[in-house]
Design goal:
single chain; about 725 residues; Peroxisomal Thiolase, Chain A, domain 1; 3 domains; three-stranded antiparallel β-sheet; globular
């Protein structure tokens, strides 16, 4: 007995130990799973799902950007005349002449001052106080969301982050006469840190909002930081890019003293004739997500960021002087982050400012990294977008990314312009690198297309990023759209001028599916106060209608009007008899399981009261639509089925209204009548009409006011049993 008592006393502690061990093992498994998830997220590619931009030469989007860059167009003009600059007195050929510059041209955003303040709910005073860089960043961020098929209104309250590279802080509007609050507006409007915060505030985004100023590398560093934040779960999406507008000519004057500007204003990247940089303006924004998230949400992936890195020159041969070893280190770190070897990368979009000092140092760093250990027949191909659009400073890194994404998608590498010969200050034989002096096709060479992007700041902060073409996805089988399908192209804007401009841009989109365009316009854009719809059954009809809208003219299938700009309420209207046609609902029975299921329920509910098959009638197998006791129940069923389809897509009405037999469908959909009761009402009502009224009269619908109609039928008044009026004027 004593022995058994001892065993019982020992069993309790043993059970506690076993339970503790089990709990410990479970916790260990949980931690391992959590660490695995974190490790996977840290290495996951970042998807670029949308891009928007504005650069010199009339570039208003990635398509314009690619056209200009691939054509090597010249985007330079004289100094802008609307910024208060002394355009005539600014030029002097002597670099040492105080207060002047020997450069006559730059690549400017000549419409940088244009801003639709009311569109964003910003007062004219506040808009005047805002740096144009903030204005441009806000507008392009909006466009970036819409280009992803995301209504900007729909992301309010979401955890989207904003990462913006902004360098210049020289905007000083003349606000004399305004005191107090106006001075606060000016302080906020010209503060670099507010640039990202204003985008987040205006769009209602609650993720991190960070403004980056590392000089020329600002926007590429911003994209790197956004990618890191996505991998750490700090936000689920991120807007990242940069904005540059020069409010004063200070950059032209100051760098002229240093003889750091090209005399003709153009960057001659990596060229023997390189004589300095060329100042330019621009703004570019990307929308980023983790690749797995982008796929879950069904967003188009334009390209992926495989890896990136940022570092600093540290104590080197000068604060602003490029540091070759530091550039080598950041390239190697980016390759390691991407899990790639140098030979896995085909091309690099270089910093390439065209300076006598910087370009040779950069090429030597590339030769020491990408140029080693690769097949001489497949050298690294080097280019720089600055040779076309200029050095856009805070927006230069994102310009390089946009160019690389477009190159990946088009399978082509544009030429680097203004190259008489590769710079002789570099021993090009020290590695396998070739300068892109002409455009090339971009083959895959046994692996996905990949390209690096470099951006080095005068602050000493360097960034390098490796992009890869979007992974192939299994094609989704889709039914071809009907050749004669008619679609509504819905266009809206805040002003009539903006509406016309948008219509003009849509008319030039080119070979795009009308159905795809219509779907994007309806679901992926904000609904604003100025509205129009072009109903088109072909590309020609769509272009004709859109061009007419752009010119402010009328055209068949074009309707326009005004709305409140606020999201409206949804009301479903159920019509009476006369709106049906043979074959109505037949195609939906085959392509919509929701519709087919609801029709089957209607057929069951009607079966007790009718001697015909609803499905046979809808499919046209029973020619009974000339009978009122068939057409009304069939129309009722189609309306109830359509309501189910809309509900399955997330569209719920605030109210329903019906006319004549449509009242029965409306009552059923609203829940006032059960399906069984509604089926009984519509069946017996239509049978009563067939038995007592059919063949004893006629009906006409007239587009006249009640007064006009009454006057016209007065001679036959005795023959009319009823003269209902549906409104002051039906049409």
């Amino acid at each position: 007995m004593a022995n058994e008592s001892w065993r019982k006393n020992m069993s309790a502690p043993n059970e506690q130990i076993v339970d503790a061990l089990r709990a410990s093992l479970k916790e260990n498994v949980r931690l391992q799973q959590e660490n695995s998830a974190l490790a996977a997220a840290a290495a996951e590619p970042i998807a670029i799902v949308s891009m928007a931009c504005r650069y010199a030469g009339g570039i208003r989007g990635p398509e314009d950007f690619w056209r200009v860059v691939s054509e090597g167009a010249d985007v330079y003009t004289g100094f802008p005349a609307d910024r208060g600059w002394d355009v005539e007195g600014l030029y002097h050929p002597d670099p040492d002449n105080p207060g002047t510059t020997y450069v006559r041209e730059g690549a400017f955003l000549h419409d940088a001052a244009q801003f639709d303040a009311g569109f964003f709910g910003i007062s004219p005073r506040e808009a005047l106080a805002m740096d144009p860089q903030q204005r441009q960043l806000l507008e392009v961020s909006w466009e970036t969301l819409e280009r992803a098929g995301i209504d900007p209104h729909s992301v309010r309250g979401s955890d989207i982050g904003v990462y913006a590279g902004v360098v210049h802080q020289d905007y000083a509007p003349d606000l004399s006469g305004f005191e107090g609050f106006m001075s606060l507006e000016r302080a906020l409007g010209t503060a670099g840190g507010v640039a990202s915060g204003r985008v987040a505030y205006t769009l209602g985004l609650e993720g991190p909002a960070v403004t980056v100023d590392t000089m020329c590398s600002s926007s590429l560093v911003a994209i790197h930081l956004a990618s890191q934040a996505l991998r750490r779960g700090e936000c689920s999406m991120a807007l990242a890019g940069g904005s540059t507008v020069m409010a004063t000519p200070g950059g032209f004057v100051g760098f002229a003293r240093q003889r750091a500007l090209a005399f003709d204003g153009r960057c001659k990247s990596y060229a023997a004739a390189a004589d300095g940089s060329g100042w330019a303006e621009g703004v570019g924004v990307l929308l980023l997500e983790r690749l797995s998230v982008a796929r879950e949400r069904g967003h188009q992936v334009l390209a992926v960021i495989r890896g990136s890195a940022v570092n600093q020159d540290g104590a080197s041969n000068g604060l602003t002087a490029p540091n070759g070893p530091a550039q080598q280190r950041v390239i190697r770190k980016a390759l390691a982050a991407a899990g790639l070897a140098p030979s896995d990368v085909d091309t690099v979009e270089g910093h390439g400012t065209g300076t006598v000092l910087g370009d040779p140092i950069e090429v030597q760093a590339l030769l020491a990294t990408y140029g080693q250990g690769r097949d001489p027949k497949q050298p690294l191909l080097l280019g720089s977008v600055k040779s076309v659009v200029g050095h856009t400073q805070g927006a230069s890194g994102v310009a390089g990314v946009i160019k690389m994404v477009q190159s990946l998608r088009h399978g082509k590498l544009p030429a680097t312009m203004h190259v008489d010969a590769p710079t002789p200050q570099v021993d090009w034989s020290a590695g396998a690198i070739e300068l892109l002096t002409e455009a090339r096709e971009w083959p895959r060479n046994g692996h996905p297309r990949r390209g690096g992007v470099s951006s080095f700041g005068a602050s000493g902060t360097n960034a390098h990023m490796i992009l890869e073409e979007a992974p192939e996805e299994e094609p989704v089988a889709q039914e071809p759209a009907p050749a004669n399908g008619v679609v509504p192209l819905v266009v809206s804007a805040a002003t009539a001028a903006s509406l016309a401009a948008q219509a003009g841009r849509l008319a030039e989109v080119g070979d795009v599916s009308l159905a795809d365009m219509a779907g994007t316009l309806v679901s992926g854009r904000a609904v604003l106060s100025e509205r129009a719809v072009v109903v088109a059954g072909s590309t020609e009809e769509a272009v004709t209608g859109l061009q007419a809208l752009a010119r402010g003219e009328s055209a068949p299938g074009l309707l326009s009007g005004r709305g409140s700009g606020a999201p409206g309420k949804v009301v479903w209207v159920f019509p009476g008899q006369g709106t049906q046609w043979a074959g109505m609902g037949r195609e939906l029975l085959d392509v919509s399981p929701v519709f087919a299921a609801r029709i089957a329920e209607c057929e069951t509910a009607l079966a007790r009261w009718v001697d015909w098959s609803l499905t046979d009638v809808l499919r046209g197998e029973a020619d009974l639509l000339d009978r009122v006791d068939v057409v009304q129940p069939a129309s009722f069923a189609v309306m109830v089925g359509l309501a189910a389809v809309w509900a399955s897509l997330g569209v719920e009405p605030e109210a329903v209204v019906g006319h004549s037999q449509g009242e029965i469908a409306a009552a059923c959909v609203s829940g006032a009548l059960s399906l069984e009761d509604a089926a009984k009402v519509v069946a017996l009502r239509s049978q009563a009409i067939a038995a007592s009224l059919a063949g004893r009269g006629g009906m006409a619908s007239v587009a006249l006011s009640e007064e006009d109609a009454t006057a016209r039928i007065e001679p036959w008044a005795a023959a009319w049993k009823s003269r209902p009026s549906t409104g002051p004027r039906p049409w």
